[in-house]
Design goal:
alpha+beta, Translation, Eukaryotic Peptide Chain Release Factor Subunit 1, Chain A, Nucleotidyltransferase, domain 5, 60s Ribosomal Protein L30, Chain: A, five-stranded mixed beta sheet, four-stranded antiparallel beta sheet, 11 helices, globular, binds zinc ion
Length: 386
């Protein structure tokens, strides 16, 4: 499980000479060593080509040794990384950092001065830890997970709930009230447990499971903070097997991610067209980033744009404004980049912005009208009057 702070740490990996390799590789159980070797070779060749375009020279010979080390490392350790691996390395230091990735990772290899964090950022942003609570009138089963890694967290049971034989001399109505008290106490206890878990950052999103009327009653006793995290309800039995819980939960989460992104694009559209708390288009976003204004970045997964980056102040832009100097610091230390998008995503992330990568076709069309990229802003900059 990777967190935002893990990512902040990885984002500090920088290499002045531009020799930092960021590698993403999906791993499949039934793939053999030869297949990986071919995939790796292709990736590393593409990293070399990219490097040549960007820096005008071939990758230094020291990369050959590094590539061989990586090949051996993946051959021997693939099993530990599940369905994919993210790997950062330099010829000097060897393999610096590795993380496991879900199978949905796209293979890529980039050699640059900064790490390519875009796929990891995407993972952290889209798939925050979630909690499933299956509730009944006398039991609760709580599971926590991230993506498809779901595990049992705790079980709570009210073992004192009275059965029919306990009615004794009580009147029917009094006995029913007595049971309701038990149910209420049980709900309260579970609600408190969920509240403590939230305070402990065990989850970001909550999904409730169980019969509708039970869930409705339980919802009422949830703390407001917990209620705010609720994203859906699934009809699951207490004894549901974990695979069923997972697949139901992932449906709810995917739907929620989709809705959130749709709302975000609409907001960027209205705010940027009103020239208020939003911008759209590459130039607008880059300027906002340079001012530290970006609160939330939204970008089409397919957008690729070349541009320049100033190695002196780090500013990125589509083209140099005047001549061959940085439009912000006037440094001549600029170089061309074949694709500025990963750099934009990393910079926005380092500034603490939320990142949403769009891969839903309908949403991509909507975002295309805004130039494929946009942002909500933290603050507005008054237009300078001419
Ligand atoms: Zn500059």
């Amino acid at each position: 499980m990777i967190t935002r702070s893990d990512l902040q740490e990885i984002s500090q990996l920088e290499n002045d000479q531009g020799h930092l390799l960021s590698l993403y590789l999906p791993l499949f159980q039934d793939t053999n060593d030869t297949d990986y070797n071919i995939e790796l070779k292709n990736l590393l060749r593409s990293a070399d080509q990219r490097f040549q375009q960007q820096f005008g020279s071939e990758l230094p010979a020291s990369f050959e040794g590094l590539f061989e080390d990586i090949r051996v490392f993946i051959r021997d350790n693939a099993g530990k990384y599940g369905r994919g691996i993210a790997l950062f390395a330099t010829p000097d230091k060897g393999i610096i950092e590795t993380r496991s990735m879900p199978s949905s990772v796209e293979p890529s290899a980039i050699v640059d001065s900064r790490p390519n964090l875009a796929p990891l950022i995407r993972l952290v942003e889209d798939y925050t830890p979630y909690c499933v609570c299956i509730i009944s009138r006398d039991q609760a089963r709580i599971l926590t997970g991230i993506l498809d890694e779901l595990e049992e967290h705790s079980q709570l049971e009210d073992d004192e709930v009275p059965g029919q034989h306990d009615q004794g001399g009580w009147s029917q109505s009094r006995f029913e009230r007595h049971i309701e008290d038990h149910v209420h106490r049980h709900f309260k206890r579970v609600a408190q447990h969920l509240f403590e878990m939230l305070e402990n950052n065990d989850y970001q999103h909550l999904i409730l499971g169980g019969p509708e009327e039970v869930v409705a009653g339980f919802r009422d006793v949830l703390h407001q903070y917990v209620k705010d995290r609720l994203i859906g309800h699934v009809r699951l039995l207490m004894e549901a097997n974990i695979n069923d819980v997972r697949s139901h939960a992932l449906d709810v989460i995917e739907e929620q991610v989709k809705l959130r992104k749709r709302d975000l694009i609409q907001k960027v559209e209205s705010e940027s067209l009103a020239k208020d708390m939003g911008v759209h288009g590459l130039t607008g976003v880059m300027e906002a980033l340079q001012r530290g204004q970006v609160l939330s970045l939204v970008v089409d997964h397919h957008v690729r744009t070349s541009g320049i980056v100033c190695t002196s102040c780090g500013a990125m832009s589509v083209t140099p404004a005047q001549g061959e100097t940085c439009p912000y610091c006037q440094s001549a230390e600029i170089r061309e980049m074949t694709n500025v998008i990963p750099g934009i995503i990393t910079t926005a992330f380092q500034q603490g912005a939320a990142i949403s990568v769009i891969d839903d076709e309908e949403q991509q069309e909507q975002l295309a009208k805004l130039g494929g990229i946009g942002a909500l802003l933290r603050f507005r900059v008054e237009e300078q009057s001419a």
